[in-house]
Write a sequence for this structure.
């Protein structure tokens, strides 16, 4: 016998035929017999889903809180405080700068067309690995910067009121790897405006 699926809410009366089993009548309403599974009402099912959702959210929040606690309480590696690195050693020839209240150590580049404290006209590396001492390093800085000044300055520039100077690392900065000398030119009469550099250099 082929069986077709039922559609709709209509019920079909099945007549008993010889040799067939009589269809049983639907069970009367009332308590289910012992051992039969109790039907779950739609309202109770929604309530169970809501409870499961709330429990899952609570577990997720607790896990996130534990993760944050572990990350924030992780022991941090101590960083050794190195020697002060003056920002002036990051400047290059042709750059103009202004100094901060702590002097040339806090110099920062500005456009040369704006009023500025000075201009970098040279830089060079000092050879050697061992600290040469302040006197030796100062003499090398002076000689090296003076030899570079003439080739940098605009020959038509009035140099009255200009003064050259130089910056070199102290022993702590030398130990940290700063082995450069910075050559600079400043005005003795306030700020400079425009570059002192010769065209083509």
């Amino acid at each position: 016998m082929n069986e077709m699926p039922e559609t709709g809410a209509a019920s079909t009366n099945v007549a008993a035929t010889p040799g067939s089993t009589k269809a049983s009548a639907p069970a009367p309403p009332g308590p289910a017999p012992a051992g039969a599974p109790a039907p779950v009402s739609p309202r109770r099912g929604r309530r169970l889903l809501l409870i499961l959702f709330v429990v899952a959210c609570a577990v997720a929040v607790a896990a996130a809180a534990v993760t944050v606690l572990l990350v924030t309480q992780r022991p941090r590696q101590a960083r050794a405080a190195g020697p002060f690195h003056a920002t002036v050693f990051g400047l290059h020839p042709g750059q103009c700068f202004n100094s901060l209240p702590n002097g040339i150590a806090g110099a920062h580049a500005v456009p040369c067309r704006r009023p500025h404290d000075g201009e970098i006209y040279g830089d060079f590396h000092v050879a050697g690995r061992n600290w040469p001492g302040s006197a030796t390093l100062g003499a090398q800085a002076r000689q090296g910067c003076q030899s570079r000044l003439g080739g940098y300055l605009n020959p038509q520039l009035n140099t009255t009121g200009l003064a050259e100077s130089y910056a070199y690392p102290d022993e702590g900065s030398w130990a940290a790897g700063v082995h450069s000398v910075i050559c600079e030119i400043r005005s003795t009469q306030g700020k400079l405006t425009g570059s002192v550099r010769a065209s083509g250099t």
Q: What stands out?
A: The two ends are 105 Å apart (CA to CA).
